[in-house]
């Protein structure tokens, strides 16, 4: 995964443990207490390593807003309230914006 400076850091295998990368929606819910980071899986030589993506989203009409306890006078809410479907559609639009830009007008 990348650290806050954008440098790749190792997540060395620790027997009996998992590395869990959270997504952008959890960062919104937690008001960036938990941040989504770019990540990739490269297995060290002679070590088995498995990457198993698991994606879970709430119901489309679920409200995505800052969770209680993740905001306060010194930590204001960073993101506007939205719904799961509106948020997911905005992420898809951002991810695939290059397709619209390359399409002939």
SSE topology:
Elements: H1 24-29, E1 63-64, E2 82-83, H2 84-95, H3 97-102
Antiparallel strand pairs: 1-2
How would you characterize the overall build of this protein?
The structure is a single chain. With 105 residues, this protein is mainly alpha-helical. It has helices spanning 24-29, 84-95, 97-102; strands spanning 63-64, 82-83. It has a two-stranded antiparallel sheet with strand order 1-2. It is globular, with a radius of gyration of 17 Å.
Distance between the termini: 38 Å
pLDDT below 50 for ≥5 consecutive residues: which ranges? none
Computed over alpha carbons, the radius of gyration is: 17 Å
Largest sheet: 2 strands, antiparallel
* H/E topology pattern: HEEHH
Summarize the structure.
The chain has 105 residues and is mainly alpha-helical. Helices cover 23% and strands 4% of the residues. The relative contact order is 0.16.
């Amino acid at each position: 995964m990348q650290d806050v400076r954008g440098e790749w850091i190792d997540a060395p295998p620790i027997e009996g443990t998992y590395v869990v990368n959270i997504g952008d929606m959890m960062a919104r819910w937690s008001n960036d207490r938990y941040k989504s980071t770019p990540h990739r899986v490269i297995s060290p030589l002679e070590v088995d390593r498995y990457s198993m993506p698991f994606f879970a989203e709430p119901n489309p009409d679920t409200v995505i807003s800052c969770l209680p306890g993740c905001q306060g006078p010194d930590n204001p809410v960073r993101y506007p309230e939205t719904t799961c479907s509106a948020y997911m559609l905005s992420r898809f639009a951002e991810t695939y914006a290059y397709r619209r830009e390359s399409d002939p007008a």
